[in-house]
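Milestone 3.1: sequence recovery, worked example.
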């Protein structure tokens, strides 16, 4: 049986989507990630604790959840959102690069 820590590491976006997600800063209170997805690029299924997302460059993303539910969202440049903990796969379904900064709360 895997520990909760092992499960978190298995779905860590920096590990499973390293081509489009990178670590910017980490300390005992937050972890800050940067993500850039070009048209058609995907971040494989991963998880985040509660987090704040800031849209640096906007565009259209499709989010797929473990249940199979899909949601297409317009990411508006300059917008910040408080997000609850969740798991999802993200695909850029638009024709522009999307860039976000995520601040994961510990």
């Amino acid at each position: 049986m895997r520990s909760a820590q092992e499960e978190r590491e298995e779905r860590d976006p920096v590990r499973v989507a390293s081509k489009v997600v990178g670590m910017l800063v980490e300390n005992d209170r937050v972890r800050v990630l940067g993500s850039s997805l070009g048209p058609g690029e995907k971040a494989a299924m991963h998880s985040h604790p509660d987090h704040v997302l800031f849209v640096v460059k906007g565009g259209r993303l499709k989010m797929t959840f473990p249940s199979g539910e899909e949601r297409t969202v317009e990411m508006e440049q300059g917008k910040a959102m408080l997000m609850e903990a969740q798991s999802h796969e993200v695909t850029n379904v638009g024709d522009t690069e999307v860039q976000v900064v995520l601040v994961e709360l510990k």
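Residues 4-105 form a domain with the Jelly Rolls fold (CATH 2.60.120.10). Helices lie at 4-10, 13-16.
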